Amino acid sequence: MGGISEPGGGHNLNVELNLVPFIDLLSSLVLFLLVTAVWTQISVIPTAVKTPGRTTAATTPETKQLDLRVTSKGYELTWPANVTLPTVIPKRANDFDKEALMNVMIAAAKSQNVAGANVSGEETVEYGAVIEAIDTVKTGGLPSVALRTN
Amino acid sequence: MPIGKARLRISDYSRMRKSRLKHKERHIRMISLSLTSMVDMFAILVIYLLTSANTVTQWLQMSHAINLPQGKFVEIPVKAGTLEVTKDTLYANNEKLISIKEIENGPFLVAPLRAWLKQQPTTEGFINLVGDRQISFGAVRRIVATCQESGFSNVNLAIQPN
Questions:
Q1: What residues contact residue A26 under an 8 Å CB cut-off, 6+ apart?
Q2: Dihedral of CA A68/A73/A74/A77: which sign?
Q3: What is the pTM (predicted TM-score) of this model?
Q4: Do B113 and B161 contact (CB within 8 A), yes or no?
Q5: Which pLDDT value is given to residue B142?
Q6: Three-state SS at A16
Q7: Residue A43 C-alpha, separation from nearest chain B C-alpha, in angstroms
């Protein structure tokens, strides 16, 4: 146990710290924190919704919008008039080429001619693939992304 | 042979006894728990748990078996209505609304969802969508379009950060 003793002299100051209640307190605090801790985090990708003929929350001008469509063959990209970047990113080994999409998005963000993106997909495409595309567009440098429902 | 030399003196007995006692003392070990290091360990653990604990309550929870899509973009969900889309059913705040097959084969706007959304406060047009990664985008776009039609144009798509 912890203690303080004064060296020399007949009057020893020997103060014993009682650590047991301190340990009790700490262990119950550890248990409480472990029980209340959130181990599985859920975060979100905020997305505006675009349906033709309806008002939208997105404020990016249509002329600076990239249209990204997720199909069973890969990504199809329609760029604004003055941008010359790849229009098709095919699947690689039966998987979407997110790395190539990321490189294209970084290039698009650098060009400053693209301000946002509208993402849509085929009926049969998995929702996860569309989410991954939105995530890649956002992390690639185009934060304004809308989900096109047509 | 003189008898006096063979006999042990009293002082010899005392010396032998002392050496036996010293030998015994050597075998007695003091066992004491080092509580200081234990307290240190607990304190470090408490500090770690306190710093890593979320200050924002994680209120967006999954009540059904949903395999979330993964993503790098991290944002804390806003407090709004939650739609859970499993592989076969659409739930709204844990209330079963409609099956996914009915959504896929039905009209573009999902009627039960529309009715449910009308009862909800708009909360600045926000709604949280917790969807399974394997469901078809066809079903999701119908759900999202219904949300927009009902005044919920900002859809937060739930992901698991990787």
A1: B39, B42, B43, B45, B46
A2: negative
A3: 0.70
A4: no
A5: 92
A6: strand
A7: 5
